[in-house]
């Protein structure tokens, strides 16, 4: 897929079940690779949604939403989050700060999902890239990270969950958390009256940095070191295919002692 795919300024992936990752060439701005897959054996639609939005002045916004599994219409909640985010950004003026538009889009989604009255909810993880800086916005436990060419993590989102907070405080090691009985509990969701949005710092980007945004189908099956290693090495499509292959292996059972949790999967990479 070429850069012309972003001529309409927004690409949305809703209820997607792709056979192969999609490559978007951004010319001097690098490449975006997107992949979404329904949980193996699942009959319902993919609860994960994603969006790639080109702003009026050439910025890029990447977003992944993970509709809460087991809740009513999780796939619809995640789609609403993508629609509201894109609508808000497309309404913003050229040259405007993206932060108000992103926050407004998430808040609109929260109101719309609550108005459904079904108990539906979703996570959302957003990264804006503008003027060689990246900034993340987080509700829930979908992940976003910025990783340097040599593997240094420049920024990583915090999972809004009891286990995520325990990892951040040093109470639980990342390896142990992947097998924790409460690793699927999320304490902050779009579609909740107590929703709050965490805003990350502005992270300066080097020419070879990689940005990844993904649902918990990735981080529940791959260790953080595996994700950063595979996401930053090789051609853009090869990076994504390596992540997919290992996630598929783990979801299918994998080797004894490795994590493994069948789940919907959504991944977006922004690479050199």
Automatic annotation (TrEMBL):
Species per Swiss-Prot/TrEMBL record: Roseiconus nitratireducens
Gene3D superfamilies: PPM-type phosphatase domain
One Pfam family in the UniProt entry: PP2C_2
Domain PPM-type phosphatase: 32-272
SUPFAM superfamilies associated with the record: PP2C-like (SSF81606)
Record InterPro entries: PPM-type-like_dom_sf, PPM-type_phosphatase-like_dom
Protein name stated in the entry: SpoIIE family protein phosphatase
């Amino acid at each position: 897929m070429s850069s012309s795919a972003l001529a309409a300024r927004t690409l949305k992936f809703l209820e997607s079940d792709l056979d192969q990752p999609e490559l978007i060439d951004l010319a001097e701005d690098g490449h975006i690779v997107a992949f979404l897959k329904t949980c193996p054996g699942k009959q319902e639609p993919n609860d994960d949604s994603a969006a790639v939005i080109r702003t009026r002045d050439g910025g890029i916004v990447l977003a992944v939403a993970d509709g809460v599994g087991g809740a009513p219409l999780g796939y619809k909640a995640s789609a609403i989050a993508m629609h509201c985010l894109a609508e808000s950004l497309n309404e913003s003026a050229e040259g405007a700060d993206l932060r108000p538009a992103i926050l407004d889009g998430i808040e609109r989604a929260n109101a719309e999902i609550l108005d459904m009255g079904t108990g539906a909810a979703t996570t959302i993880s957003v990264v804006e890239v503008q003027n060689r800086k990246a900034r993340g916005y987080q509700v829930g436990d979908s992940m976003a990270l910025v990783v340097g060419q040599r593997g240094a993590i420049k920024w990583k989102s915090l999972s809004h969950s009891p286990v995520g907070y325990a990892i951040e405080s040093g109470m639980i090691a990342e390896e142990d958390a992947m097998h924790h009985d409460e690793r699927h509990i999320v304490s902050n969701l779009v579609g909740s009256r107590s929703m709050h949005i965490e805003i990350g710092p502005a992270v300066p980007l080097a020419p070879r940095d990689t940005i990844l945004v993904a649902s918990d189908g990735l981080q529940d099956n791959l260790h953080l070191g595996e994700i950063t290693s595979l996401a930053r090495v090789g051609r853009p499509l090869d990076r994504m295919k390596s992540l997919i292959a290992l996630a598929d292996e783990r979801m299918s059972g994998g080797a004894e002692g490795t994590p493994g949790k069948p789940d919907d999967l959504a991944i977006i990479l922004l690479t050199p």
